Amino acid sequence: MDTLVKMFTQLGVNESFTTMFLIFVVTYFAMSFVALKKLSVTIVERDNRIAGREKEAHKLKTELSEITAKLNEHLVAARKKSNEIFQSLKNRAITEQKAILTASRETAAVEIKGVRDQVQSQIRSEFAKLEKEIPAISKMMLDQIVLVTGHEAGNKGSGPQNFKGV
Questions:
Q1: What is the pLDDT of residues 112-161, one digit of tens each?
Q2: In this structure, are residues 8 and 17 in contact, taking their beta carbons and an 8 Å threshold?
Q3: How far apart (Å, rounded) are the C-alpha atoms in residues 158 and 12?
Q4: Are the CB atoms for 147 and 159 separated by under 8 Å?
Q5: In a 10 Å sphere around its CB, with 0-12 CB exposed, 13-18 middle and 19+ buried, how is residue 105 labelled?
Q6: Measuring CA to CA, which of 14, 75, 137, 159 is 20 to 30 A from 119?
Q7: CA distances from 6 to 3, 19, 40, 46 (A)
Q8: What is the pTM of this model?
């Protein structure tokens, strides 16, 4: 024991160390009866609650991943269905548009034919009028030419100044 005391003395431990050690031991035992048991029970309960909450959190994460997977499946199915509906509506609209365009083209063709027929009948009537008027106009032109050439024969220097037109 002497060697142990010498060793502690060389390390700088003096006789007050024994007193401090005894105070520590007494305080430790007193505290273990008063507070450490309650603290240890509280720590154990806390560890149990933490473990239970970790299990619950893991379970919730698993449920979340399952719900997310189901939601994604439903989302894909809904997108597919909406795309099919959109395509059918688009095809129906294109079909209706083609029908409307075809009907409009046919109506326009009928109207154009009617207008064309009217124009042709007006042209024919104008040609008929012209055919009736051409002999009279040509006769007047011939009379004027004859009249002008007759004056020229009598009046050689005058020329076209005597022509009065139709």
A1: 999 999 999 999 998 888 888 888 888 888 888 888 777 666 655 544 55
A2: yes
A3: 161
A4: no
A5: exposed
A6: 137
A7: 5, 17, 39, 47
A8: 0.42
The SS3 assignment for 156 reads: coil
**Residue type at 43 in one-letter notation:** I
Mean pLDDT confidence for 70-82? 96
Rounded Cα–Cα distance for residues 16 and 12 (Å) = 11
Total residue length of the chain: 166
- Rounded Cα distance between 40 and 17, Å, is 29
Q: Distance of CA 98 to CAs 19, 93, 102, Å?
A: 109, 9, 6
% of the chain with per-residue pLDDT over 90: 51
Which residues, other chains included, contact 162 with Cβ-Cβ below 8 Å and sequence gap of 6+?
148, 151, 152, 155
